[in-house]
Amino acid sequence: MTTSTVAEKKPSISPGFIAWLGFVGILLLIGLVSAVMVFWKGLVITNMSDTIPWGLWITIDLSAIALGAGAFTLSAIVYIFKIERFRPILRLAVLVGFIGYTSALLTLVMDIGRPDRFYHPWIYWNVHSVLWEITWCITIYLSILILEFLPVIAEASFFDRWPWVRKAAAILHKTAAPLAIIGLGISLLHQSSLGAAYGIVRSRAVWFKPSMPIMFIVSAIAVGPALTVAIAYVLEWVTGKMTVPHNVLRTIVRFSGVALLVYGYIKMWDFLASTYYGNTEAVTDSLALLNQLTPYNFTFWVFEVLLGILVPAVLFLTPRFNRNPANVVLGSFLAVLGIIVNRWNVTVSGLFVPLEYSPGILYNPAPVNYFPNLVEWGVAIGILGYMLLLLTLGVKYLPLFKEEHGHT
Amino acid sequence: MTEKKSKKKKQVKVNLTRRDVLTVGVAAAGSAVVAPLITSGPLSPFSGLKQAALEAETPTHIEHGHGEYHWGMVIDLDRCIGCEYCLRACSAVNDVSPDHPWNIVIEEQTSTEQTFYFTRPCLHCQHAPCVEVCPVKATYHREDGLVVMDYDRCIGCRYCEVACPYDARRFNWEVPKYENPYVPTWGVPEVPRRARGVVEKCTFCIHRIDNGLEAGNMPGEDFDSTPACVNICPVHARVFGNLNDPDSEVAQVIEANPTIRLREDLGTDPSVYYIPPKEGL
Questions:
Q1: Per-window interface: A 332-391 vs B, CB < 8 A
Q2: Cβ within 8 Å, pair A42-B165
């Protein structure tokens, strides 16, 4: 039995695949070296400072979690709204979600000063803290993702030798629906709380607005599924095998397009209310300063709005375009880029603007510019390597697209 | 249509039995009950550690500043001469890195272009944003109004640094191996250095307050139980004491002078008051 499965796999390890693994290995090596340096010397070797305590890594956390949102969205569609059509993409979506959440946690472990105390939020509760709630939700949701995914892992041919694993997996699979319900609730909470982590900080005028959590969750719901679809198409090109029926992918992409427009709509009113009409001194000054220091306006309009929302929405919603997978993949790539730029802009926009002690401007320290240095990019590259490795292994060794045959 | 409907019903029945719902509900409720038992109760694996003692010290119901004591400070910007003695004494006594002082001194100008000096400890806000955001209660309110740091609990996420409107918090970016230029001229360290990876800030010399009260002294009146910055000030620009005692010097000074607090619009309710320069700000 085991020999036959090995024989099945061997021919599929092509030179191209080995080259790909080598590339991923180099990324991981860069990340590993950077991580060791950070653990050895401390965070002092990054470009972060007391003035700008958060930087590239927080951007990665926020983006990775937002991009993993396809898992809870599609799980909810299949398990709660019972739209069985979307089941064929579910396993891939859960895998992408798992990759997103674990990379976020990995980055977080790099980012915090005391990684050895990572478990403290579970022991010492501050129920008033948004970050405490986020930590709880993320870890609980990650467990849900693992529980949802274990039956898939159990289906791998490796487990042929232990029938009890399959039986246990079958029992576990029955909990999928309640898990999806809990997952939906928890995701709705923490995806928005990530925005609230900024939205509640009243000392930073640019951040302090109730639209922050809403924009975070809507953008995540829009882009998460789109990324999953793009990965399905790319896998199809790479493996040459049909992954998920194209009509399913097209429907999901249309859903993403609509969600992107909703995101754009909320973003428009947010911009109009807080910046254009609001025109409060604190916000206006902050934005003026941001534009002096960074290409804030340019990145906002071009990457967040034009390339991140409008172009992908057109590519996703127009039948002429979304029939061609290349357009969908391009649109997803742009939307993902838009999310990452948005999370970066949100993070730095609040921190670049120095605090001000009124009445009278008692203290207004010189603004500090921040751009990640080599070590920070190194860790980011390592995280990318981790994402690609997990995706590669998952696609290669797990029956991600098995169920579609039974349903079509 | 009808076929679809019946199918739907069937699936609901199969996937979401009462037992499933109950199991999940009981598990959630159970963990909610068990978790605090494990963390702080007799079942806690940490009960033997110092953490448990700290946990007991953390008030669950916060009535900060309404007890017998509410420690506060007045800083007279009209008196301050910008000598930086407060910064130096603070850095020596608390063994603070010279690159990241807790207590800052800044030269400023009034609107009439008069030079004055502005100093800032931690303001020990009664609605402190740092306390709200800390995910592990490593920073918390004490009954006497102090905002305290628990260095053994801090995970170094730096959210408090991001949230503090006054830039009062400092992170230990590296192992604290610096040479302290203020020791021994300006004082000797009375507290250990903080480890790499945790956040720190001005404590109002909490060790002096606590030891002083235990010895029957009154912080703000007795030298040994008063913050180092207050003791060292050559022009008596800083007054420290119990805001809840109307007879204390600090309360009297606030009563007798016009005072401001920083960014009152944020609703942080700081425990540090400033007397503006005579020329105005």
A1: 350-351, 355, 357-360, 362-363, 365
A2: no
Per-residue pLDDT for A406 more than 60? no
The reply to whether residue A114 touches residue B173, judged by beta carbons under 8 angstroms, is no
pTM score of the predicted model: 0.85
Size of the A and B interface in Cβ pairs below 8 Å:
167
Q: At what angle do helices A325-352 and A211-239 cross, to 10 degrees?
A: 140
**Of residues B189, B197, B167, B177, the one with CA closest to residue B263:** B167
**C-alpha A276, offset from chain centre:** 30
All residues of chain A having their beta carbon less than 8 Å from the beta carbon of residue B15 are 79, 174, 176-178
Q: Judge: A111–B157 Cβ closer than 8 Å, yes or no.
A: yes
Q: What CA–CA distance (Å, rounded) separates A393 from A381?
A: 18
**Taking CA atoms, what residue in A is nearest to B259?**
A359
pLDDT of residue B13: 46
Q: Where are the domains of chain B?
A: 2-52, 58-275
- Among 3.40.50.300, 2.60.120.10, 3.30.70.20, 3.30.450.20, name the CATH number for the domain at B58-275: 3.30.70.20
CATH of A12-407, one of 1.10.287.3510, 3.50.50.60, 3.30.9.10, 1.20.1630.10: 1.20.1630.10
Tell me which chain A residue has its CA closest to the CA of residue B169: A50
Q: Do the chains contact at A178 and B11, CB–CB below 8 Å?
A: no
Task: For residue range A240-267, list pLDDT tens digits in order.
Answer: 888 899 999 999 999 999 999 999 999 9
ipTM of the predicted structure? 0.90
Q: Where are the domains of chain A?
A: 12-407
pLDDT tier for residue A405 given thresholds of 50, 70 and 90: very low
